[in-house]
Design brief:
With 171 residues, the chain is α+β, with helices and mostly antiparallel strands. The chain has one domain: 3-Layer(aba) Sandwich (Aminopeptidase), CATH 3.40.630.30. The chain has five helices and eight strands. Strands 1-2-3-4-5-6-8-7 form an eight-stranded mixed sheet. It is globular and about 40 Å long. The two termini are 18 Å apart. The mean pLDDT is 91.
Length: 171
């Protein structure tokens, strides 16, 4: 499944359980980069191989994006997210999580291509809304999602002190 812009084409395919180490590297790399920028969104020590295996076991769809066969990004898609979306969770929506682009490929538009691919994929699965979330304090990522056409739905305040913004886009 390919997604292109005027400069590059990425190929997005389901990750296999044997590629879990690649997914883990992408998550940890993004987490380290976020922390180096003072953004408290992901902690590299938080990510473990068993979390990826749990995603597979729960039926979440984990994808890897490749540029000329080199892995450049990942995300996973689930079809329900009551833990975060609570009463707003519904069957018309698909949910994007753990969206990450290789730090070696920043500024190439890979993130936009991967988001667009996910939107098209969910639309083809009959979903009318694409949803995601991020830490409210991550100003840059919040603006990125707004610039990508997502609308802010709600700010959540969790008991652990985290503040999370929920975003949605109609397909």
């Amino acid at each position: 499944m390919k997604q292109s812009n005027e400069n590059i084409t990425i190929d997005v395919r389901p990750a296999s359980i044997d590629e879990s180490h690649i997914v883990l590297e992408l998550w940890k790399g993004s987490a380290s980069w976020l922390q180096s920028k003072g953004i408290n969104q992901w902690n590299p020590e938080h990510f473990k191989m068993n979390q990826i295996h749990e995603c597979f076991n729960k039926g979440n769809e984990i994808y890897l994006a490749r540029l000329s066969e080199e892995v450049v990004g990942t995300l996973f898609i689930c079809w329900s997210d009551p833990f975060i979306w609570a009463e707003l969770d519904n069957n018309e929506s698909g949910y994007i999580h753990r969206f990450a682009v290789s730090r070696n490929h920043l500024g190439m538009g890979i993130g936009q291509l991967l988001l667009k691919w996910a939107e098209n994929y969910m639309k083809n699965k009959g979903k009318t809304r694409i949803r995601l979330d991020c830490m409210a304090e991550n100003d840059r990522l919040n603006q990125y999602y707004l610039d990508s056409g997502f609308q802010h739905i709600r700010l959540l305040h969790w008991d652990n002190g985290w503040k999370i913004n929920l975003y949605e886009k109609s397909s």
